[in-house]
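Support reply, case 0932

Customer input (verbatim):
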Amino acid sequence: MDKATKLEIIKEYGKCEGDTGSAEVQVALLTHRIKHLTEHLKMHKKDHHSRRGLFMMIGQRKRFLSYIKARDINEYRALIKKLGIRK
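Our regenerated output:
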């Protein structure tokens, strides 16, 4: 992921200017990386090391989403709808 894409995602999902650590931003960044890695694995089916990394990212995103869901269910629903993921 290049710096411009990362800054754009942070600006879109962050609560303020330099918000890089909130759970919503982390979920958005992980979702972008997961989509990119999924496309890579469609071409390189035997790349099991990257597949393991993908599964670890999915687990991390799942934990962030569980945290957001426990904190505020409406914010959780809005985030998964905006990102286009299903849970």
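We compared this against your earlier run and they match. Two observations from our side: Residues 57 and 83 are 16 Å apart (CA to CA). The chain has four helices and no strands. Please reopen the case if you see a mismatch on your end.
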